[in-house]
Design a protein that fits this description.
Layout: E1 4-8, E2 12-17, H1 31-34, E3 38-43, H2 60-73, E4 79-84, H3 86-97, E5 102-108, H4 113-119, H5 129-134, H6 140-147, H7 149-159, H8 167-178, H9 181-192, H10 194-204, E6 213-217, H11 220-224, H12 228-233, E7 239-243, H13 250-253, H14 255-265, E8 287-289
Parallel strand pairs: 2-3, 2-4, 4-5, 5-6, 6-7
Antiparallel strand pairs: 1-3, 1-8
């Protein structure tokens, strides 16, 4: 699977996975600061940005395997993994399926697929109307989104942000989303179907995240009426949970908070390398199609 990837810095590896409706560009404020002590790897997820857009393979188990394959190509052994929004689902699945590879897990402003549907109920679920729309099995979502793509994707960029995006960044996100409509919808369809099945199976079998896990979220629990620490503790044996007053796009609105979260999470290996092979000597602007 071809993943368009930016690599920067030297040191113990950290892979950053973007959210919706974004690309690896969302890490532009975080990556340079992390790169002072780490090799920072920022791919576009399958179906997003400049990465490959196959018709299938949007269950998070397959997308997580893409990340493992990328780590193998970069000769990484274990690595820290951080995801935002859609990237949370991929990172979460990678950590459950490959606990021998993911040393630390950071999760920004989302919850697992199984819990996503359980915490949405009543009129408060209107905030996530797109989850229900994009889950439809017919081609209705494709028709509606294609006919009004900038309005659709722009709605989330505007509604979920507490401060406006720079015009060039907003335009880049809209173009990338416009070019990825079928794959983005398949990603969301999977969230409502096979991803839930995989999570439920893990819960039934008592599987948990065994590595240190740091979660940074808005106060969704207060808004939707659930206890977020209880939600995450059923998945994680070593949990650090923090709320943020920033908007959903926390890596762009409060990048110093995200950098601090990641540095605190991986502090025991700060400045060291867990790579089994050489660290790629690349800069922030060095983009690789993998």
């Amino acid at each position: 699977m071809k993943l368009h990837t930016v690599v920067t810095g030297e040191g113990s590896p950290v892979i950053l996975l973007h959210g919706f409706p974004q690309t690896h560009l969302m890490w532009r404020h975080v990556a340079p600061k992390l790169a002072e002590h780490h090799t920072v790897i920022c791919p576009d997820l399958r179906g997003y940005g400049a990465s490959g857009k196959p018709r299938t393979g949007y269950d998070k188990r397959t997308m997580a395997q893409d990340v493992i394959d990328l780590a193998d190509e970069l000769n990484l052994g274990t690595f820290a993994l951080v995801g935002h929004d859609r990237g949370v689902h991929v990172a979460f699945r990678a950590a459950l399926d490959h606990p021998d590879r993911v040393s630390h897990l950071g999760l920004l402003d989302s919850v697992p697929a199984f819990d996503t549907w359980n915490v949405l109920h009543g009129r408060e679920a209107a905030v996530a109307f797109h989850l229900y729309l994009l889950a439809q099995p017919t081609d209705l979502p494709e028709q509606l989104v294609t006919n009004s793509s900038d309005a659709f994707f722009g709605h989330f960029l505007d509604l979920w942000a507490k401060s406006p995006f720079p015009e060039d960044v907003r335009a880049e996100y809209l173009k990338a989303a416009r070019d990825s409509i079928p794959s983005i919808i398949e990603d969301f369809r999977a969230l409502a179907t096979i991803d839930v099945d995989h999570d439920r199976e893990d819960l039934d079998n008592g599987r948990k995240l065994t590595m240190p896990v740091a979660v940074l979220q808005q106060d969704w629990g207060g808004q939707l009426g659930f206890d977020p620490t209880e939600l995450w503790r059923k998945w994680a044996t070593d949990l650090r949970f923090t709320t943020t007053t920033a908007g959903h796009f926390v890596a762009e609105e409060a990048p110093d908070d995200v950098v601090r979260l990641i540095r605190d999470l991986v502090a025991p290996v700060e400045g060291s390398s867990s790579a089994t092979g050489p660290t790629p000597p690349t800069g922030l602007a060095a983009e690789r199609a993998r």
